[in-house]
User: Fold these one by one.
Assistant:
Number 1:
Amino acid sequence: MTPTADLSRRAVILIGSAGTAAALAGCSTVSPAGVEAGGPSTASTGGSAPQEVAKLADIPIGGSISATLDGKPILVSQPTEGSIIAFSAICTHQGCVVKPGEGEFDCPCHQSRFNGATGEVIDGPAPSPLEKIAVRVTGGVVLADS
Ligand code: FES
């Protein structure tokens, strides 16, 4: 079972509880918006709940992949076997989405290049490194605390 599956089950329970409360209260205190607020999107972004961002097996050794965290684009790299690091994929120049390349990250807008292991600027107009994102690997899954 994955943490995501576990969260989904909890979300269903939360939604079910809200629906039961609404039925018991004659639907007077729980609006549809209230039910949504307790739904999966809020439950999965509760601040510190770890989120699966990638499977370790999907990240090439010496390479990287694109992924998302809370709907935002990120880059997940494996510079050496079992060593995982992640960065925001938002370019520090003007906010374009940076793409994984050969051992580096490439911005398609103005050709900034970033080191695939450190996020540091290699070349281009980008003024600063990509923002690091804390991740860890558990059971072959890359998890980030949002
Ligand atoms: Fe990335 Fe300009 S937005 S180089």
Note: The chain has one domain: 31-145.
Number 2:
Amino acid sequence: MKRKPFVCGNWKLNHNLAATNELIDQIIVGLPANDNVDVAIAPVATVLFSAGAKAKGSKLQIAAQNVFYESQGAFTGEWSVQHLLELGCRYSIVGHSERRQYFHETNESVAHKTKACFAGGLIPIVCVGESLAQREQGQTQNILLEQLTPVLDVLVPENIPQLILAYEPIWAIGTGKSALATEAEEVHSYLRGLLVAQFGSSLAEQARIIYGGSVKAENTTELMNQKNVDGLLVGGASLTAGSFLAIVKECLKRLT
Ligand code: 13P
């Protein structure tokens, strides 16, 4: 099945308001005129209001890098799905490995967040991925299953066509050492299999499974030509318009 590629730039803790505004302008101008790819950026939370306003009416979509699962109350420092929708966000990244590592997110909190996103009308980009040590010990599939099981438990069939899963091997993030396209495909096909087992193939075939970890224009085509690689989550190479747009354009050359 042909799934529309989804490319999201995760800006992490980079770019102030002025730089964000400038970069959004450059990206919007450079986006392909057709609708054959979905493109989003996830800027720092404090600039989402401005980013949402700037992107309104354009082909560029806005994602948050994080979201909390409660909708209101005594949760200092957090923001909800409703708050993000108000700012014009369509997606939120959930469970990025940096949030798991530095901010103690657990597989259960990731599942809560995923459920809250779908309940509120925000599309979650749910991240999973193994460390180098886990891969070397042959634990990749076990770790991914552990990470994903609580998430699968909260999903209902209607969620699956919208679901975006991001496979981001930790050893490939920010290292310049991307997974080989074949390594990515092996994992993506395993992840698809988990969805098929729980929801059946006609729904599972609609979910998008994207890859992240040292993506650049040079490795985009090979990654995107894998059967189960439906898009990319891009860190460093999304921080300038030229390198991000080059990746978006490469995605349009997808064969499968
Ligand atoms: P890099 O593209 O910089 O490796 O980062 C990947 C990532 O973490 C995207 O979420």
Note: The beta strands are 6-10, 38-42, 60-64, 89-94, 123-128, 164-167, 208-212, 231-234.
